[in-house]
Sequence to fold (466 residues):
Amino acid sequence: MSIIDTINTWLWGYLLIALLIGAALWFTVRSRGMQFRMAGEMLRLLAGSGKKAGDGKRDSHHNISSFQAFAVSIASRVGTGNLAGVATAIAVGGAGAVFWMWVIAVIGSASAFVESTLAQLFKTRGKNSFKGGPAYYIEKGLGKRWWGVIFAVLITLTFGFAFNSVQSNTIAMALEVSFGWNPLVVGIVVTVLTLMVIFGGIQRISRLSEIVVPLMAVAYLLLAVAVIIINHEVLPDVVSMIFREAFTGTAVLGGGIGGALMMGIKRGLFSNEAGEGSAPNVAATASVSHPVKQGLLQTLGVFTDTLLICSCTAFIILLSGKAYCGDNGIALTQSALEAEVGALGSAFVAIAVFFFAYTSIIANYYYGETNIQFITDKKWPVTAYRLLVGAMVMMGAITSLNIVWALADVFMGLMTLCNLAAIIMLGKYAMILLKDYTAQRKAGNDPTYHRTTIPEISTKTECWPE
Fold:
């Protein structure tokens, strides 16, 4: 733990915060604030995203709709980070951490747009669906396969192993707190359920995600709204506390602005994944007529994750008065909700976190699989990976909270560094695509991308028509 903490302090205290904010601000300026001015377009695309758009050479195998890809990425985003990660941020960094989570989501959504648009641009054809992501656009766009392999290894370790341990740990803790269930038994059940789905491929993953995630997210949002209405009189004080402690720290925890800033950005990135390089892997699987369409939908995913669901958890905890009671992680969220709506509140959180975290496990697994396929086309590494994912899910259920979160932070930091460097270098292509998309929309057309739009990379964008 001492070594892991030292690495995390260096990564998150000095390097990553500056790079994340710097890259996000740069892309926001270059795109003329696309996350603000194109919000209406994002909603319009979401409304029609259930249909599969033509790509010029589409066949029956490439059958992941834009909404299904969006749902899988949301399934990964909406999980432990929303319910347990927010609680950890508040418990360690104070109410001010919530403000910095909002900041990194708002500006970071521009980075999310760039990385997912690039993933669509440089995607390739797989056996059952399109494939793509940072490893692919690093190899094709930058011509650096070794760099792509490094990213592929890092994301496999981060999502397939470290993050999935966090997810199963949270499921086990939540069910133990609410129902007294043995973490070992919970771990076995979750592991079996995981293996049943991940041996079914991306189609099964996408179908599960598009059904379960929206239902649980809506139910959780409604519960949070009810808590806010019940406590509407103290809501202004809570909002004031969030902004005040963001710039002063909290006397209760004895921390300053640095603690709030670091925890807000760390837990915010864990939750919304903007700039991290994870969502592009599933964004690339969608059949769309223009890369920007999926880029805009993934931008909306960041808003959905942090500004809606993370904010719900934050207000539930802060309105309950339990923020600094000594609990941490999912136990704090359960304690806060129980204080507001009784024992049923804790039980609901346990059930919600099971579905959120379980679908995250499935989506996280897919990120690793597609990157292993980037490294090698042999089948046995994927089979071995599936079994190891099951083992890590089992291990996470019975391991301590501090260890799994600390390891997740290390691997998340390293893969984010790798991806940020790539999208900063390739971001110019996303800006060309955005300009092309906007021009076609102004002309009253449904935007369609052709390889000749960017001649210098036409031979590297195989999935688009001439």
